[in-house]
Amino acid sequence: MAPTTQFELAQPPNDAVSSLVFAPNAPSRLLASSWDKNLYLYDTLTTSENGDAEDGSGVSHGTLLRTYEHRAPVLDVCFGADDNEAFTAGMDWEVRRVDLESGEQTTVSKHTAPVRRVVYSKAHSLLISASWDSTLHIHNPTNPSLTPLTIPLPGKPHAMAASPSKVIVAMTSRLVHIYDLGTLAGALESQSGEAPAPWQQRESSLKFLTRAVAAMPSDGGYATSSIEGRVAVEWFDASAESQARKYAFKCHRQTDNAAAAGVTDVVYPVNALAFHPVHGNTFASAGGDATVALWDAEAKRRMKVYQKFADSVAAVAFSTDGRFLAVAVCPGFETGMEDYSGEGRTKIVIRELGENEARGKGAK
Amino acid sequence: MGKKKRGHPDVEEILARPWCYYCERDFEDLKLLISHQKAKHFKCDRCGRRLNTAGGLSVHMNQVHKESLSHVENALPNRQGLDVEIFGMEGIPEDVVQQHNQRIIQNFYQAQADRYAATGNPPPGQGGKNPPKKLKVENPDDIKKRLAEHRARIAAQKAAGGAPTHTPPVGAPDGQSPAQSASPGTFALLASPLPPQYPQGGFNYPPSNLPSRPGSNLPVPSGLPPRPGQPGFPGYSANASTVDELVASASGQQGDHIDQMIRDLERGEAPARMGDSAAPASADEPAPEKKSKKDKDKNVRMVYDDELSPEERMALMPRYAFVPQAA
C-alpha cells in the first residue's frame, strides 16, 4: 500500500484552473486549462529532478511536461482523437487545436464571443464547441474540408458534456438541450447547412443557474449541478418510469452557527461533476465549500466526502483507468467580488483511489 | 397479566439492548454491537483494517497512511466527533444515554399507542375495569322499560286512529338511533337488543382516548412528532426524519415542549444535509423544495447568487478580459 495517496502537483498553474482532463489512453497524462492564459500538460506519476520534494519523502509530485500559451484565458480543454491532440476553448473567441507533441496551435473555429466549453466525441469524430454567442459549432477535425455546422441556441451555454451517443448542453434560463451525436454527424456530413433539431429539450430540474453537467459513461443519463448547492440526476429515456427515477439533492453546504442572526446555511456552488469511467454509477462533485464528494447515482447514496481542501474546488477529473482523481483547488469567485486572483493559491491535487473507494455498495 | 404480547417485547427488554453511540442502532448482544462498530465506524477505508476504537483508527490512519481522520464514518451528524472514546457500550456520555433511553421509551409508547389505535384493543391492564366484552350496557330492566314505552306509544298512535306505522317517531324520547329506523316495527315486536344498538352505549373509549397509560410519568406520546419512518410526515423522508429526530433529541431538548422540538427538527435539517450519509436517498425533488420554503425563516446565504456565471463575471475584469483586435 502506497504510503501517501494524495499529493499536490509540482509547478501548478499561476492562476485559477478552469478545467482538468485526463488523456483517453495514458492514465497519468493530465491537461489543465488556466485563467493565466496557459494550457498545462502534466505527467502525474513521475517526479522531475527540479520538482521539489520539500518534505524529502521522495514521493511523486508529478512533472510539468509542457505549457502552451494562449492569447487569452483558457476556459475549457478536451483531448482529441489521441493523447497528443487537444482542443481548447478560449476567452479570445477561438477554438484551437493543440498538438501536444510539437506545441503547434491551429485555430479550428471562431465564435463571436468567448468559447465556454469544448467536447470531443471520438466515436463520431466530432468536435463541439459552445460559446456565449449562444451557438454550438460542430467540426469534424479529421475531415477539415467539411464546412462546420453552426447551431443557434436559445440561451447562453454554461456547461456541456458528451456521453457515448449524446451531447448535453445546459444553458441560461434553465434550458437543457440534448443532441444526438449521430444526427449531428449526419447533418455535418450532408453539408446542407441546416441545423438539426435537438433530440430532446428539457427544463433543468434545478431552479438556479446550471454550473456543470456530466454524462454517465453507460449512456444512461447525466447529472447537473447548480450554483445553489444542488445536484440533479436524470435519465435520457423519456418514458414516464425512467423520468420518475430522476432526483435532486442538496450538497456542498455548511451551517454557520457563529453568525449573530442564529443559524445560517451557507450554500456553495457545485463547480464541477465527473463520472467514474469504471464504476459508472459513481460520480464526484466539486464544491465551493472546498470539498469533493463521491456519490452513487443509482443507490442515491453519498459514498465519501474528502477532507476539506485549502480553497474552493474548481474542477475534478477521473483518469481513464479510474485509479486517480485530479482536483483543482483555487479561490472561489463569490458574489460581489470586485477583483479576483487565483495567483499563488492554485493547486492541483492528485489522489490515488483505493481499490474499492469509488465502487458503489449497491442499493440498500 | 402474565401473557406476553406476541412479537412486542416490553420496554425494559428494549432498553436493555446494546446500542451504537454513532448510529443509534440497537443489537441483540454486545458482540454484535462491537463487530458492527468495527465494520461500520472503525474501518479504515484505505486498507480495510478494522480497529477497535475511533482513536485507534485515527492513529492507524496517521501512521500507516499518513492521513488524518476527521470524523467517524457512517455516524449521525452530531456523533461524528473523535473526542469521545467509544467501545461497545463503554464511553457513551451520560446525557446521551439518557436521551437515548428517553427516545426509546417515547418510541415504545408511541408504537404501543399506534398499535392500540390500529387494532382497537385497549391497553392491557384496563380490561377488567372497562371490558370490551360488555358492549351491551342496557340491562333487561331497561329494555323492558323501553319496550313498554314503545308499546304505549304504538297504542297511543292506534288510539289516535292510525294503523301501526313503521315510521319511527322523530325525536322520540327513547333516543332510538337512525340505524334502527329501518325496522322499528320488527324491533318493537321482538324487543330484543339487536346488534344495531351498540352505538347507544358500546363505544365508551374511542381509539383516540387510548394512548395515555396510567401511572407513567413519561411525556404523553400522542403529542410527539411521528415516529421515524412513519409516512405522512410532511417533507421528511424516512431517513432524514430518523436523523433529525436524533439531532433534535441530542441537542438537549426535553420531549415535552412540542413547538420547540419541531423548530429544532427544522433546524437540525441543516447539519443533516451535509453530514447525512444517506443524503441523496432522502432527496426527491419535491421534498427538498418544500424544505427550502421552510428554510426561509432560517438564514440561507448563497456564496454565489447571480444571473451571470462566475466565469462571465471574471471575464469582465480587466485582468482576464479579451479585447478583440479591430478587424
Model description:
The complex is a heterodimer of chains A (364) and B (327). Helix content of chain A is 4%, strand content 46%. Chain A is built from 2 helices and 30 strands. Chain A has helices at 181-190, 240-244, and strands at 6-8, 17-22, 29-34, 38-43, 63-69, 74-79, 85-90, 94-99, 105-110, 115-121, 126-131, 135-139, 149-152, 157-162, 166-171, 175-180, 200-203, 210-215, 221-226, 230-235, 247-250, 253-256, 264-267, 270-275, 282-287, 292-296, 301-305, 313-318, 324-329, 347-352. In chain A, a hairpin with a 3-residue loop joins strand 3 (29-34) and strand 4. Chain B has 327 residues and is mainly α. Helices cover 39% and strands 1% of the residues of chain B. Chain B is built from 10 helices and 1 strand. In chain B, helix 7 (238-250) crosses helix 8 (258-275). Strand 23 (264-267) of chain A pairs parallel with strand 1 of chain B, so a sheet runs across the interface.
For the sheet with most strands of chain A, the description reads:
4 strands, antiparallel
Strand order of the largest sheet of chain A: 1-30-29-28
| Percent of sequence in beta strands of chain A | over 45%
What value does the Rg of chain B take, in angstroms? 33 Å
The major pleated sheet of chain B works out as: none
Please name the two chains that share the biggest interface, counting residues whose Cβ lies under 8 Å from a Cβ on the partner chain: A-B, 71 and 50 residues
Mean pLDDT over all positions of chain B: 66
Calculate Rg of chain A over CA atoms: 20 Å
Secondary structure category of chain B: mainly alpha
User: Helical content of chain B, roughly?
Assistant: 25-40%
Structural class of chain A: mainly beta
Instruction: State the end-to-end distance of chain A.
Output: 30 Å
Low-confidence stretches of chain B: 167-256, 269-296
Average pLDDT reading of chain A: 89
Q: How widely separated are the two ends of chain B?
A: 98 Å
Overall number of strands of chain A: 30
- Number of distinct helices of chain B: 10
Biased composition (Pro residues) (chain B): 222-231
Organism (chain B): Apiospora saccharicola
Domain C2H2-type (chain B): 42-70
Keywords (chain B): Metal-binding, Nucleus, Zinc, Zinc-finger
